[in-house]
Amino acid sequence: MLRIGIECESIEDLQTWGVGRILKSLLKKIAENRDDLREKYRFILYFKSHVPDFDFLKDPIFEKHLLTSWILPRSFSFYYYLRLPWQLWRDKPDLIYLPNYMLPFFVTSRSLVVLTEDVYYEINRGSLPWRYKLAYRIFSGHAARAATRILAISESSK
Q1: What does the angle CA 32 – CA 35 – CA 40 come to, to the nearest 5 degrees?
Q2: Which of these, 27, 32, 29, 101, lies nearest to 64 by C-alpha position?
Q3: 49: which DSSP letter?
Q4: Whole-number Å distance between alpha carbons of 59 and 149
Q5: Contact 107, 148 (CB under 8 A)
Q6: What is the pLDDT of residues 86-100, one digit of tens each?
Q7: pLDDT digits (tens, 9 = 90+) for 109-152
Q8: With the CA atoms of 86, 138, 24 and 44 taken in that order, what torsion angle do they form, in degrees rounded to the nearest 10?
């Protein structure tokens, strides 16, 4: 059985945009009555703050992990760059899908990363604070170099 990890922080809010909407649609399709998927695949979903109460997430094909701590901060940076790689190292999925255009260091699984044109814009021209631009530059650049596969949604992303 192939174990596929999926980073799901982008669907935790009630309203999802962009990548979160695409990820939500993907998970709904997986959860539809597909016995052929259940025999071959196991999906491990990783959440930062809480597991949303969506009906499709109750499907037994999904194994859910909430990567929060009582002691340590609940920041995205802690979750994405430290807690997630640690949990991936422990779970050892065959493949990890990261829809948020960044690949944390120390991820040893095969990886599929989505790269979008907005990250390039934000790094070079956007109005985000300098620390976010730096993080985008480091981790999206690392994703472009180290990911097993890259999914580009448009020609400009490519």
Answers
A1: 110
A2: 27
A3: S
A4: 27
A5: no
A6: 999 999 999 999 988
A7: 899 988 777 777 888 888 889 888 888 889 888 888 899 998 87
A8: -20
Chain position carrying tokens 């070079």: 124
CATH code reported for the domain at 2-152? 3.40.50.2000
* 130's tokens: 């300098």
Residue range 49-104, pLDDT digits in tens: 899 999 999 999 999 999 987 776 678 888 888 899 999 999 999 999 998 888 88
pTM over 0.70: yes
CB burial of residue 95 (10 Å; 0-12, 13-18, 19+): middle
Bridge-based pairing state of the strands 110-115 and 149-152? parallel
4 has which bridge partners?
A: 43, 95
Q: What whole-number distance in Å separates Cα of residue 128 and Cα of residue 23?
A: 24
